[in-house]
Structure formats: structure tokens, C-alpha cells
Amino acid sequence: MDYTINVTLQTERNVKDTSKIPFGVQPTEHMFMAEYKNGKWHNTRIVPFADLTLSPFTLCLHYGQTVFEGMKAFAMNDGRTNIFRPYKHYQRFSLSLERMCMPQVPEDLFIEALHQLVQLDANWIPDGEDGALYIRPFMIASEGRIGVKVSDEYLFMIVCSPAHQYYAKALKVKVEDRFVRAADGGTGAAKCGGNYGAAFYPTELAKAAGYDQVLWTDSRHHEFIEESGTMNVMFYIDNTLITPPLSGTILDGVTRDSLLKIAKERGINIEERSISYREIQSALDDGKRVEAFGAGTAAVIAPIEVIAIGNKDYNCYIGKDAIMYQLQKDLLNIRNGNTPDSHNWNYII
Ligand SMILES: Cc1ncc(COP(=O)(O)O)c(C=O)c1O
């Protein structure tokens, strides 16, 4: 690797009990930082977590040139720490950066920075099966210049926070028939800040109507299911696991990919294809058992118990023997070292 990561240790830790910390509020002691200027990454370092100082002219504050990732590290049963599929997250980070005209981070720098940071702050991983260290790599356009342009300078950082299960209960979602998250040719497959800011308004309307999230549909027909919140979605109907394809408008979820591979190994029928809300509706109208769930790093698996289509609420199956829980269990077993990691998904520190 061409980069040396300088480390300045934070010696004081004022949080002892990580068991009750809500998601995303408590940083760990350290963070990684690097600056991009004159076509190169400089000053690669791990330092005590601290606020940033930015000029009000900073480009990302105005034009949204920002990209992020979200991944997790876990404590394995044998006491070792693993980061789940960092290379797959790196690939997606790279694609997002390209889409947003931002410079690439060399893979070895990304992995080494993650490794050193997680090694330092792994003692923040809360106890229990759902305890994890949430890891947030991100990049922002940092040039101080107020004109609309691609930035010449960037800041790449990694911060961490202790995490537990994201959603405590099964979700109620509403099929969105007015607003869209992403259209063909847009930024739906990139993990860029603007996608999330634009999703808030429709999501708040859904919440005001008593739902947790919207189930996004395609921009042309408002009919084919896309994804939901910070999750890909999957349905289990007629012994088949169905999930929307990677069409360019949804995120290529690492959890989605992992669950599909696990399901395949279990001999489950898999269909990556467009799925209309009408198909789900008619299966439910016919009295079929339909499982619906979100899949994502934060939530792992989020069972969906209600899907609102038009003015009607439909109930999905969330019984204990649901396939989604078996898939989740398989994934947890790989991560905590109970079953062999045949795909090399665990990056062990
Ligand atoms: C919009 C969106 N879709 C899907 C996902 C799930 O992706 P992953 O499983 O990689 O966390 C996320 C979370 O990162 C997301 O933000």
C-alpha cells in the first residue's frame, strides 16, 4: 500500500454501557480521514472523533456531491471481530463515486483504513446477537467554491457507532402511487445523499397515515415494486422467493445478495424479476400465504406485516416458521462463526 495511516489515539472513553444507545447517535472514539487534492489522496490518518470545520462555500453543502456506505462489524462466538463483506461494499462505493463524479479511493486504502479503525474501536460492539459496530464510510465534495461545478477537492472519512436491531417490530408499508424514489437513468443505484433527502417527504406522508415506510414503485407505471426505505424487498409466495431485479433504479444491497445466495443453497426457488403490486394483491386476495420483508445492513431482515395497496391494508405472514427468519438465522450463523463461511464473507480482523 502506498499510504501510511497515522494514528492519534483517544485515551479517554466516557461511555461504558452500549446496551441502550439508540441507532446512530453515539460515535466511537476514533475516525479515519483523508483529503483529496491535486489528484491525490493525502494525510491518511486515524484521529479522535471530532467535529469538522467547513467553509459555508463548501460544494457538498449546496449541490449534493456526497456518497456513503453502511456496513457492520460483529463479535464472533470465538471472540474475534469480523467485518461483513467489506469488498462488496467497496465495489458499491466505487460505483456510487463514479456516478457522482467523485474520485476513487484505492481498494487497499479503503480496506486498511477499515481494518485499523475497527480494530481500535471493536470494543464498542454491544453484547448480544444483534449487537454490531455500524461503520459509515463517506465522501464529500470539500472544495470551498459556490459555483455549480464538480469539486476538485474531497474528504473521505470513516466513522463508527454501536448498533442494535434497527426495527423492533414488524413493519407496515404503503405502496407509493404518487412519488418516486428513482427513475431510469437517475441515481437510484448510487448511495448518494440526494436519494435519501428526496425520500423524506413521501415517507413522512406515509408515517402521518400510520405506516412505517413506503414501498416504492417504478416511475413509469407506479406498479412494479422497487425497494423500501433503506432496504431491498423480497416476497415469498408459492414456495418462490421473488425480488426486484437490479435494474439501475434500486441499490445493489449486500444483504439482498447474501440472502439470495443463502436461499439458493437451501434449494429455494429464486426469481429476480419485476413484481407488480397487483400480483401481491391477487395472491393475498386468493388467501395465499405471502411473506414480505425488507433486507438491509441496518435492519438485516425487517418483516412486513401490513402492505397498504390503495385504501386497503393487506396482512402478510409473519409467523415464527416463516422462511425469512430461517434465511436470517443462516446469515447470522455465518457472521458469528457458527457455520462455515464458504463464501469468504467475513473479513476477520
Ligand atoms: C436505498 C437502500 N436500499 C437497499 C439497502 C440495503 O443495502 P445493504 O444490504 O447493502 O445494506 C440500503 C442500505 O444500504 C439502502 O439505503
Structure notes:
With 349 residues, this protein is of the alpha+beta class. It has 2 domains: 6-164, Aminotransferase class 4, branched-chain amino acid transferase, N-terminal domain (D-amino Acid Aminotransferase, Chain A, domain 1), CATH 3.30.470.10; 171-335, D-amino Acid Aminotransferase, subunit A, domain 2 (D-amino Acid Aminotransferase, Chain A, domain 2, Alpha-Beta Barrel). Helix content is 24%, strand content 28%. The protein has 8 helices and 18 strands. It has helices at 59-63, 86-99, 107-121, 193-197, 200-208, 254-265, 277-285, 323-336, and strands spanning 6-7, 30-37, 40-48, 66-68, 71-75, 81-84, 132-141, 154-163, 171-175, 213-215, 227-228, 231-237, 240-243, 269-272, 291-296, 300-309, 312-315, 346-348. The strands form 2 sheets. Strands 1, 2, 3, 4, 5, 6, 7, 8 and 18 form a 9-stranded mixed sheet that branches. Strands 9, 10, 11, 12, 13, 14, 15, 16 and 17 form a 9-stranded mixed sheet that branches. Helix 6 (254-265) links the parallel strand 13 and strand 14 (269-272). Helix 6 crosses helix 8 (323-336). The longest helix is centred in the N-terminal third of the chain and has 15 residues, at 107-121. The chain is globular. The model has no long low-confidence stretch (mean pLDDT 95). Bound molecules: pyridoxal-5'-phosphate. Pyridoxal-5'-phosphate binds next to strand 12 and helix 6.
**CA-based shape:** globular
What's the helical proportion of residues? Answer: 10-25%
- Give me the count of strands: 18
Largest sheet: 9 strands, mixed
In what range is the share of β-strand residues?
A: 25-35%
**Ligands (ions, cofactors included):** pyridoxal-5'-phosphate
Rounded average pLDDT: 95
CATH topology title of the largest domain: D-amino Acid Aminotransferase, Chain A, domain 2
Distance between the termini: 18 Å
The CATH class of the largest domain turns out to be Alpha Beta
Which series of helices and strands comes N to C? EEEHEEEHHEEEHHEEEEHEHEEEHE
Please identify which CATH superfamily of the largest domain we are dealing with. D-amino Acid Aminotransferase, subunit A, domain 2
Spans of at least 5 consecutive residues with low confidence: none
The SS-based structural class is alpha+beta
Count helical runs: 8
Question: What is the count of structural domains?
Answer: 2
